[in-house]
Amino acid sequence: MEVLDTFLDALGDTPLVRLRRVTRGVRPQVLAKLEMLNPGGSVKDRIGIRMIEAAERAGLLRPGGTIVEPTSGNTGHGLAIAAAIRGYRCIFVMPDKMSQEKIALLRAYGAEVVICPTAVPPDSPESYYRVADRLTEEIPGAFQPNQYFNPENPRAHEETTGPEIWRQTDGRIDAFVAGVGTGGTITGVGRYLKARKPDVLVVGADPEGSVYSGDEPRPYLVEGIGEDFFPGAFDPSVVDRFVRVSDRDSFRMARAITRQEGILVGGSSGTAVVAALEVARELDDPEAVIVVLLPDTGRQYLSKLYSDAWMLQYGMLDRPEAIRVDEVLAAKGGDLPPLISVGAHDKVRRAVDVLQEHSISQAPVLREPSTEVAHVVGSIRDRELLERVFRDPEALQADVAEVMAPPIPVVEWDDPVDTAFAELERAPAVLVVKAGQILGVLTRSDLLNFLAHRRAPT
Fold this sequence. Notes:
The protein has 458 residues and is an alpha/beta fold. The chain folds into 3 domains: 10-42 and 151-313, Rossmann fold (3-Layer(aba) Sandwich); 45-143, 3-Layer(aba) Sandwich (Rossmann fold); 325-452, CBS-domain, CATH 3.10.580.10. The chain contains 15 helices and 16 strands. The strands form 4 sheets. It has a 6-stranded mixed β-sheet with strand order 1-2-10-7-8-9. It has a 4-stranded parallel β-sheet with strand order 5-4-3-6, with helices on both faces. Strand 4 (89-95), helix 3 (100-108) and strand 5 (112-116) form a beta-alpha-beta unit. Helix 5 packs across helix 6. The longest helix is centred in the middle third of the chain and has 17 residues, at 152-168.
């Protein structure tokens, strides 16, 4: 039988896939290394078990011990899987910009999560590095793998990820592109590839606000890559150049990869692909082979980069032009006339028949048959009519003017839809008017239907 002993045996041998649609217009082949297919959903799975095993061999981690690690989330997932199998307690210290999905996932493994502020220097006692150090010192039997300085980090990639890429490309790789967080991935893969082909171009994809590409350290939104210091796991001599990428370009590219290639990725994958495309345009050789590492899945970013509201909030999507009321009115379907009304001197029974005939819940009351808004004197609504008739059946014979409610609010045809929304928060419908003439009626249901079927931003 083909059976793995543990989930950890599913690590590695992630495939390469050719990117076809987001690479239109560039001549080299761009191949993506799909690290989200590791057991924990990221490239960091490769280093988790390696760091634990090394600590066990060195006597730094004993049965019943506690693993404490500062992490952006993915290393924590890799460690949590290994710890669950080996029986260790885990405490992960994370910066506050990380997605709620990442935090929830770590807790699902039984880990404890401590959140620290992002916008503090790395040597601040509040930084997630220093908090992790303090917890390691205070907790008996605690061990911190410290991916930022642990030699097992780059070694894992030199011994696994690099050889896989070399084998999968049959040694034809010309450039390797990856985001740089701890620096372990690009250091380990770069060392292996350059040992076999010294002219392989190794490119680091770096967010704006990271020191790797020479920027002044400042907060940014993409997770898991970039730094405000140089970790010991990173060997800068391996990297030939950096490409600096904005949050906006990173997130928009990640969404494009998901929607055009069918590969659900995180924001740092977008960063890497933006950089890979810049390298591809410069090489401009159809025989060139570029491998770009996609470090994790997008499932843990659904509330962030895959949320249109979040993207708009942070300026990552262009705000759509203001929608006008007449656009919503024009989108109404069905065979209803533009205006259904009742007369002020019609009987209530007749008004009820009108509502039933057209399956509507309200209608304007007019002084006389007309489309002029000046003739609107009130409105009828099925809820108020039901209450009146239930308590007084004789009301069916009364004039509508005796039981009508205040007029339906009026909005102009060229008003922004926000105006109609504001009115619909307090009334079930609005009259749309142009030059004093009623064009039609919009209900809450009409607006909801319009918004539900608008094309989502990309």
